[in-house]
Amino acid sequence: MSMKRSLVLSGILLAGLCTGTASADVVGKVGVDWIGNDIIVDAVADPEVKGVTCHVTYFDRSVIDRVKNGNWFEDPSNSAISCHQTGPIEIGDIDVSKGGEEVFKSGLSLIWKKLVVTRIYDKQNDTLIYLAHSRELTDGSAKMAISTVALYGQTVNWKNGKPQ
Q: Which residues of 141-163 are buried (b: 16+ CB within 10 A; e: fewer)?
C-alpha cells in the first residue's frame, strides 16, 4: 500500500470517527496500465440506512504517473457509484432536507480535494438518492455520479417513523 493511500485511509478513519460518516472497505483493485495506475472499488455501508451498500470507484495514480505529470498530491476527480439493497432496510435518523447529508468522504489529494457521497431522500418518489462528487477548495468539480435505491414496495423499518 502506498504512503499516500495509507495517509488517506487514516484520514478517512479519523473523519469517520469525528463526523459519523461511513468508512469504506476496499473490495477491488484493477490495474489499468503498465505504470501502476489503478481503479479502486470501495464498498460503503450507509451508517444510517442499514441494508444499503454503495460501491464507489475512483482512480489511484501511481508514483510514475505523478512524476510524469508533475502533480504529486492529487488524484483525478473521476468516480462512479452504484447503490443497492443488500439486506433488510432499516432507516435511522436521516436528514430529509433537499441538501441531504454526507455519508462518506475520502481524500483525493493530500489536503483539499475530497470524494464525497451525499444521501438525499426523495419523499415524493420514496427513493434514496446517493450522489458521488468531488469537493475542491478552489475550482469545485462538475464531475459527479448518481445512484438510487427505490423504497416503494419494500418493507422498510423507519426508526423515527416515515417522514410525512
A: beeebebebebeeeebeeeeeee
Q: Transcribe the chain into DSSP letters.
A: --HHHHHHHHHHHHHHHHH--B-EEEEEEEE-STT--EEEEEEEE-TTEEEEEEEEEEEE--HHHHHHHS-TTB--S-EEEEEEEEEEEEE-S---STT-EEEEEEESBSSS-EEEEEEEEETTTTEEEEEEEEE-SSS----EEEEEEE-TTS-EEETT----
Q: So where are the chain's domains?
A: 3-158
pLDDT tens, residue by residue, 30-52 = 887 887 678 889 898 999 999 99
pTM value > 0.90? no
